[in-house]
Design brief:
heterodimer; A: 294 residues; alpha/beta; Rossmann fold; three-stranded mixed sheet; 9 helices; 14 strands; globular; B: 437 residues; N-(1-d-carboxylethyl)-l-norvaline Dehydrogenase, domain 2; eight-stranded mixed sheet; six-stranded parallel sheet; 17 helices
Chain lengths: 294, 437
C-alpha cells in the first residue's frame, strides 16, 4: 500500500535514473524528458554500480533534492546463478551506501514479482515474499537494504512481466513470442501454454512510476493490470498481428503448470482512475513499433 | 427456594446502546419491570419520549406496547431496586479488531456500588475469554452472583433475536451450582434452552459462533468468486447446499462484500491473538481475514474493469452507505471502502438512514431519492441491500442513468428486468453478465 507525501502531484526537482539504458529505464527517461522533468540518466557505462567504489561515486553525483529511481539489475536472461546474484547485490550495496551518504528526497526501487512464490495463484501486497530462487531473493534483499539505508520516503514497486518493442530481454513473454513469430513464423509454447500471467505494457509501468514520483509515494505496490491470460491466448494474439500465418505449437511439458494473478486493489486505491492499456492494444502497439524499427 | 414471580422482578440494563435498548424492550415485553440506565442524560430523556437512538424494525412498536413497564434514568442509584442488572455498553474496536474494554470497566465501576447485595450482575457485552473470572475476583463476586451472558444481537433483527432467542449461553463461576433464582426466572420467561457453562467456555462460545459464521461466509465468498470466473451461478448452487442436512437451511451462504460491522472482525482478531499467545494454529483465521479484505473490494475492481477503463471521468450513482440494511452504522462499510477508491470522480449517493458526508468522499453529492442519485450517472452501484431499493423500477433506472452499468453485488434488482431495459446487471457469484463486453 502506498502513502502519498504529496496529495496533489508535483514535479520532482530532478530524477536520477539508475539503469537508464535499459528497457524500462530508457522509456522512463524519455517520459521524464517529455514532460520537462530534469533527468540525470546513468547507465552501467556511466557508472558501474557493481564496481569497487561505486557507492561513493554515486553519492558524489546525488543531490538532496533528487528523486532516485533504482532500476539497475542483471535480469534472469543474463544469468540466474550465484555470480549474477552477487553482482546484483554489489549494486544494491553501492546504492545503499550512496543514499546513506546523501539522503535523496525520494527513492523508488523497482523490484520484481519474483519475490512471490509461484505457489501463490493470486497475490497482493500482503502476500508473503517467500522467494524460491536467487533472483527473487536478490530483489527482496535489495528491498530490505534500501529500507535500512534510506531515510527518505521509499517506494518499492514489484512489477509483473513488462512488455514493449524495445525490450532487450528474451524471457518467456510477448517480446520473445513476437520475435519468434517474426523470425521463424512459429511460436513454440512450454507445454500447451496453459500458464496464466499478467503482462503490463512498459508505457503503463512508466506512467505509474511517474505518478509515484510526482506524489512522492512511499510503501509497497505491485505493478500489474489485474488481468492474466494464458500463454496460449497470448501467443494467438501475437500471431494474429502478423500478415503471414504464424504457427503456434505446443511441446511436451517439462514443468508443472503455474498461474499468477494479481489483486490490484491497492493500485486502484493509490491511483484512482488509472486506465491500463488493454492487452490487445498494447500488443498491437509493440508490434507496430517492432515492424517500424525493422 | 421458590422462584420469584415475573411480575415482582425488576430487571436493569446499564448502557442504552443498540444492545441495551433492544434487550430492555424485550424484557418489558416479557412482563418485567425494566430500568434502563445510561450515563448520558440527553439519551435518557430522548428514550423517555420514546425517541429511539437506533434504527431497528419492530422496536417502535415494542416501545408503544410495553412502554409502561420501561423506565429510563441517568441516575445509577435507581438500579438499586433491580434483582438483575445487565451491563450492556458498546465495546469499541480499533482498525485491526482490538477491543477497548475501558467503557465496560467504567460502567461496572459506576453500577456495582448501587446494587443490592442479592442482585445478580450480568455482563452482556462482549468481552475476551478470561475477563469475567478476573472481574469476579476483583469485585469479590465469586459466589455465583456474577454472570457472563452471550449476546447474539444482529443489527436489523435485534428485536426478533431479543424476544425469541434460540438459547441462552450463560457463563458462571461454577456451572455445577444453580443459577441465581431471579436470574433463572428472568431467562425462563423466554422459553428457550439455557446452557450454563464456565465463564471461559461462554466467552469463547460467542467467538465460536462467529467463527462458524465467518467460515460459512468465507466459503460462500470464495466459491462465489469462482462462479464469477467460470460462468457458474452461486445463487443456483446455494439452495442445493441448504438441503444438505450437514449444512442446513439457515446456513450463511449468501455471498457478500467481506466481513463488516466490527464484531466479527473483533473475534477474528481475538482468536489470532489467543492462538499466538498460546501457540495454536490460526492460519485459517488469517486466511478468512485476507479473503474478507479481498472480497470487500470486489466493487472497486468491478468498477475499474467495467467503467473506469471505458469511460472518461465517470459519474457514479451509489445506493447505500450503511454497512448493511436496517442500520445507520457505517463501521467497515463496503460502500465507504468503495468510495475511498473513487477519488477523482463525482459520486451521487443515497441511503435511507445515512446522510452523504464529505468525509466519505470529497466529491460526494447527496441525492433526494434513489432515482435522483441515478440522474446522469454512468453506472449505478447498489452497495447496501435496503429493501426500499428492490421497489425501484429498472425502466426508471435506465431512463435516469447515462450509462448502462448496474453493479449490484447483492442482487437487489431483478437481473432479467434489468437486461430487458438494456442495463448490464453484475452481481456477486454470477459470471454471466460480468463476462459480457
Amino acid at each position: 500500500m502506498l502513502t502519498h507525501h504529496f496529495a496533489d502531484p508535483a514535479d520532482p526537482a530532478r530524477v536520477v535514473v539508475l539503469g537508464a539504458r535499459g528497457f524500462v529505464g530508457g522509456t522512463l527517461v524519455a517520459a521524464l524528458e517529455n514532460v520537462g522533468i530534469p533527468v540525470l540518466a546513468l547507465g552501467s557505462a556511466d557508472l558501474d554500480l557493481a564496481a569497487e567504489g561505486a557507492g561513493s561515486a554515486l553519492a558524489g553525483r546525488l543531490q538532496p533534492e533528487d528523486s532516485l529511481v533504482f532500476l539497475s539489475a542483471l535480469t534472469p536472461d543474463k544469468g540466474r546463478g550465484i555470480a549474477s546474484y552477487l553482482a546484483n547485490q554489489r549494486m544494491g550495496a553501492a546504492v545503499a551506501e550512496a543514499v546513506e551518504r546523501v539522503t535523496p528526497a525520494h527513492l523508488v526501487y523497482l523490484s520484481s514479482d519474483a519475490v512471490y512464490p509461484m505457489t501463490a495463484g493470486l497475490v497482493n501486497e500482503e502476500s508473503p515474499a517467500d522467494c524460491t530462487d536467487l533472483y527473487g531473493v536478490m530483489h527482496r534483499a535489495r528491498e530490505l537494504m534500501m529500507a535500512a539505508s534510506c531515510r527518505a520516503p521509499l517506494a518499492v514497486l514489484r512489477p509483473t512481466l513488462i512488455y514493449g518493442a524495445a525490450d532487450t530481454h528474451n524471457s518467456y513473454g510477448p517480446n520473445r513470442l513476437r520475435r519468434a513469430a517474426r523470425k521463424d513464423g512459429r511460436i513454440t509454447l512450454f507445454g500447451e501454454g496453459e500458464e496464466t500471467r499478467d503482462h503490463i505494457l512498459v508505457d503503463d509501468a512508466v506512467a505509474l512510476i511517474l505518478r509515484v514520483l510526482r506524489h512522492r509515494s512511499a510503501g509497497l505496490l505491485n505493478l500489474a493490470t489485474g488481468r492474466s491470460v494464458s500463454y496460449r491466448d497470448l501467443a494467438d494474439k501475437v500471431a494474429a498481428l502478423f500478415d503471414t500465418p504464424v504457427e503456434v505449437v505446443g511441446t511436451s511439458r517439462q514443468n508443472p503448470v503455474t498461474h499468477r494473478h494479481f489483486d490490484v486493489t491497492a493500485l486502484l486505491r493509490a491511483f484512482p482512475g488509472f486506465a491500463f492499456t488493454p492487452l490487445d492494444e498494447g500488443l498491437a502497439k509493440a508490434h507496430r513499433e517492432m515492424m517500424a524499427g525493422a | 427456594m421458590t422462584a420469584p414471580a415475573t411480575g415482582v422482578l425488576v430487571i436493569g440494563f446499564a448502557g442504552m446502546t443498540h444492545l441495551g435498548v433492544n434487550s430492555a424492550a424485550a424484557a418489558a415485553a416479557r412482563g418485567f419491570t425494566t430500568v434502563g440506565f445510561d450515563l448520558d442524560p440527553a439519551r435518557v430523556a430522548a428514550l423517555a419520549r420514546a425517541e429511539l437512538p437506533v434504527l431497528e424494525p419492530g422496536l417502535p412498536e415494542l416501545f408503544a406496547e410495553h412502554g409502561e413497564r420501561l423506565r429510563f434514568t441517568a441516575d445509577a442509584a435507581e438500579l438499586g431496586r433491580c434483582d438483575v442488572v445487565y451491563i450492556a455498553c458498546d465495546v469499541p474496536t480499533d482498525d485491526v479488531g482490538g477491543s477497548d474494554l475501558t467503557p465496560v470497566r467504567g460502567l461496572i465501576a459506576t453500577v456495582v456500588p448501587t446494587l443490592r447485595p442479592d442482585a445478580t450482575l450480568v455482563v452482556l457485552c462482549q468481552v475476551p475469554p478470561g475477563f469475567t473470572r478476573a472481574l469476579g475476583a476483583e469485585l469479590g463476586r465469586v459466589d455465583g452472583s456474577l454472570i457472563y451472558q452471550v449476546e447474539t444481537l444482529i443489527f436489523g433483527r435485534a428485536v426478533e433475536r431479543a424476544l425469541h432467542p434460540e438459547r441462552f449461553i450463560v457463563g458462571t463461576a461454577d456451572p455445577a451450582r444453580p443459577l441465581p433464582a431471579a436470574f433463572a426466572t428472568f431467562l425462563g420467561a423466554f422459553g428457550c434452552p439455557i446452557l450454563p457453562m464456565r465463564y471461559e467456555s461462554a466467552e469463547l462460545a460467542k467467538i465460536s459462533i462467529n467463527m462458524c459464521l465467518v467460515a460459512m461466509i468465507s466459503t460462500a465468498n470464495t466459491l462465489a468468486e469462482l462462479c464469477e470466473r467460470i460462468g457458474a451461478d452461486w445463487s443456483e448452487i446455494a439452495p442445493s447446499l441448504k438441503l444438505d442436512r450437514r449444512i442446513g437451511p439457515y446456513a450463511y451462504l449468501q455471498p457478500g462484500l467481506g466481513i463488516a460491522g466490527g464484531n466479527l472482525e473483533r473475534d477474528l482478531a481475538t482468536v489470532c491473538r489467543l492462538a499466538d499467545e498460546h501457540g495454536s494454529d490460526a492460519g485459517m483465521v488469517r486466511s478468512w481475514i485476507a479473503n474478507s479484505r479481498h472480497r470487500r473490494d470486489w466493487a472497486l475492481r468491478t468498477v475499474q474493469e467495467r467503467v473506469v477503463a471505458r469511460v472518461a471521468d465517470p459519474v457514479f450513482a451509489v445506493w447505500g452507505l450503511a454497512y448493511k440494511q436496517d442500520t445507520h452504522s457505517t463501521k467497515n462499510s463496503p460502500s465507504l471502502a468503495l468510495l475511498s477508491g473513487l477519488g477523482p470522480f463525482v459520486v451521487q449517493a443515497y441511503d435511507p438512514a445515512v446522510a452523504a458526508d464529505p468525509a466519505f468522499h470529497p466529491r460526494i453529492v447527496g441525492a433526494a431519492d434513489p432515482l435522483d442519485a441515478c440522474r446522469g450517472a454512468d453506472a449505478l452501484l447498489v452497495m447496501t441491500p435496503w429493501d426500499a431499493f428492490r421497489a425501484v423500477d429498472p425502466r426508471e433506472i435506465a431512463a435516469a442513468l447515462r450509462g448502462r452499468e448496474v453493479i449490484d453485488p447483492y442482487g437487489i434488482l431483478d437481473s432479467a428486468a434489468c437486461r430487458t431495459v438494456g442495463l448490464t446487471h453484475v452481481t456477486l457469484g454470477c459470471g454471466t453478465d460480468a463476462d459480457e463486453t
